[in-house]
Design goal:
Collagenase (Catalytic Domain), 15 helices, twelve-stranded antiparallel beta sheet, 588 residues, alpha+beta
Length: 588
């Protein structure tokens, strides 16, 4: 009888053994880290071992290998969505769920928190089938999750009317070279191919070797959320910071329900009582190691200007910029990056961040610098100078100025990733901020020559330092920082350091007499007169000396167009300012 019972139980014992993680993964390669995962080389699959149920973490998708079209916008290094998620089990399903952090109850009463959580929808992003389990760990096949268009590339191409493409699973695969694991973050990457092309637009045709297939790479980061030692700082519109907005249903009825906190990196002094102290952990940015010289040195120098602001806030060596080591992955969430990105045409540079939605703490800064901008600047300055005699250069001012512009660009975009918005009052405040769009300060000097001696600044401005002080100054524990911060902003106003954002300068309905995107001087007419004088002088000396030997004369048009555009924005500045101030003197 005992033998019969054992034989009857044997199939069930065998089935339980086969359902164990050890049995399922015995031929796979284990990668230990935040979430352990197994690589099944034979099947080209990744199996994820989930041992943190109901535990929130950060999920970010990004684009490490892009399309190369500025107009479509799918750039190398582009950050996609970042959100808090958690795993929850329902039977044989494992659901990846995104809670709604826009609506919350900041209170210690769990019943109030529950009422808010149940009042607004959550989002289930994916459903996995549990393949095996051991103790408190569940094994799921993560391959379908990783081989999906998480970045919305096909939708982006279609919305730009550049073709109807669909994801082809047969031509897509896990990219193990950039799939890595670390104690606090798990990094996954996939090669995705989109097929179609019968209606491919010109932008796609320009950048793909074959329009029938577009192959990109997409990256997925699972990241441990920061601890609760970070203290959020309240947003003030005068501070110049970006912010995270949420609705707090736990607030008193006498207070606004909508709350806003600034976005900033975590930075503490080792000695909060010292006027100047080293940080507990510095903010380190890494420059793309594919950046060539002399651009590399210019970007390093411009980005490092921000250390001046942190010194003003009482920190020593708090902001550092280094070249990315060859062994590091730029898409690794642990690295703040300055990427040198190539496109088929000149386009925007920008600074983006990944932040904790709960607190506004910036976890990763990601700068994208378009590589063709410096060539456009070089053409503009060449057009103004016509620097060739008998086809040979007699001046290197245009090269020097173009490289100088890159230092400004690096400082500007890094500033965004430190939490700062544009400040278009800079020209009115004597170039007080690199967060403006700097029009080159070129003028005709007493000798009647176009003068480049003050073309761009050599450091960040006084407003930049005050902004970083507001966002990062460490007042120490137990100090009520609110009145100190308000006094700081009041001093800015008293000293004439203004902040004027995009909404009041860029938008068609946001006219402001002191702000425009591309102007110099506090007086718009004086700035226009300066630009007209420069353009007039540039046109007077414009000739075949604007191009080198053995260059077709037709290429003069490539140089002349930037010269034509040189002060077009100045006219816009004048008329916008005139309209907003209703000045008869301006509108002549």
């Amino acid at each position: 009888m005992r033998i019969i019972l054992m034989l009857l139980c044997f199939p069930f014992l065998l089935q339980a053994q086969n359902n164990s993680i050890a049995e399922k993964t015995k031929t796979m390669e284990l990668h230990k880290g935040y979430f352990n995962y197994y690589w099944d080389a034979a099947q080209g699959k990744i199996f994820l071992a989930v041992d943190k149920l109901e535990t929130p973490f950060l999920y970010v998708n990004s684009l490490p290998a892009g399309l190369g079209s500025n107009d479509i916008g799918l750039d190398r290094g582009q950050i996609g969505d970042s959100r808090i998620v958690f795993f929850q089990r329902v039977g044989k399903k494992l659901l990846l769920t995104q809670p709604n952090t826009d609506y919350r109850a900041v209170t210690s009463d769990p019943r109030e928190q529950k009422a808010v959580n149940e009042s607004f929808a959550q989002s289930i992003l994916f459903s996995f089938t549990i393949e095996a389990e051991e103790a408190n760990t569940l094994l799921v096949d993560a391959t379908p999750f990783l081989l999906r268009d998480a970045h919305g590339a096909a939708d982006r191409i279609r919305k730009m009317k550049q073709g109807t493409y669909t994801l082809n699973e047969g031509r897509s695969a896990i990219y193990m070279k950039n799939t890595k694991n670390f104690p606090k973050n798990s990094e996954f990457e996939a090669t995705l191919t989109f097929v179609g092309g019968s209606d491919a637009g010109r932008f796609v045709q320009t950048v793909t070797p074959s329009v029938e297939a577009i192959t990109l790479r997409m990256h997925h980061s699972f990241v441990e959320l920061p601890d609760n030692n970070y203290q959020p700082r309240q947003y003030d519109i005068r501070s110049g910071f970006f912010g995270t907005t949420y609705f707090d249903f736990g607030s008193d009825i006498s207070e606004p329900i909508q709350k806003m906190i600034i976005n900033r990196h975590r930075l503490f002094k080792k000695d909060p009582t010292a006027a100047m102290s080293e940080p507990v952990k510095p903010i380190i940015y890494y420059l793309d190691n594919g950046t060539p010289e002399p651009i590399r040195s210019a970007l390093l120098e411009g980005a490092r200007w921000w250390n001046q602001a942190y010194e003003a806030a009482g920190f020593k060596n708090a902001f550092q910029v280094q070249v990315l080591p060859d062994s590091a992955d730029p898409m690794d969430i642990r690295y703040n990056m300055i990427n040198w990105v190539h496109r088929s045409t000149r386009g925007w540079s920008y600074g983006a961040t990944i932040a904790d939605p709960r607190t506004g703490e910036i976890i990763k800064g990601q700068v994208t610098l378009g590589s063709l901008r410096v060539r456009q600047d070089y053409l503009i300055f060449t057009a103004l100078l016509s620097p060739y005699i008998n086809g040979k250069p007699v001046s290197d001012k245009m090269r020097t100025a173009a490289i100088h512009r890159l230092r400004q660009l690096a400082a500007h975009e890094v500033g965004h990733t430190l939490g700062l918005q544009h400040n278009y009052a800079s020209s009115f405040n004597d170039r007080a901020s690199v967060m403006d769009y700097p029009h080159p300060n070129i003028f005709v000097n007493e000798k009647g020559e176009i003068d480049f001696s003050k073309v761009y600044t050599d450091e960040i401005g006084p407003w930049d330092k005050r902004a970083i002080m507001y966002g990062y100054q460490d007042f120490g524990k137990g100090v009520n920082e609110t009145p100190l911060l308000q006094n700081m902003l009041a001093e800015n106003s008293k000293n004439g350091l203004l902040f004027i954002a995009d909404a009041d300068a860029r938008a068609a309905g946001g006219f402001h007499p002191y702000a425009h995107l591309w102007d110099n001087q506090s007086d718009a007419v004086a700035g226009l007169d300066q630009a007209i004088a420069v353009r007039k002088k540039g046109m007077e000396q414009f000739s075949e000396e604007a191009i080198t030997n053995f260059t077709p004369l037709a290429k003069l048009e490539d140089v002349l167009v930037p010269l034509y555009n040189y002060h077009r924005y100045q006219y816009e500045a004048v008329f916008i300012k005139c309209y907003s101030t209703k000045s008869i003197r301006c509108c002549y």
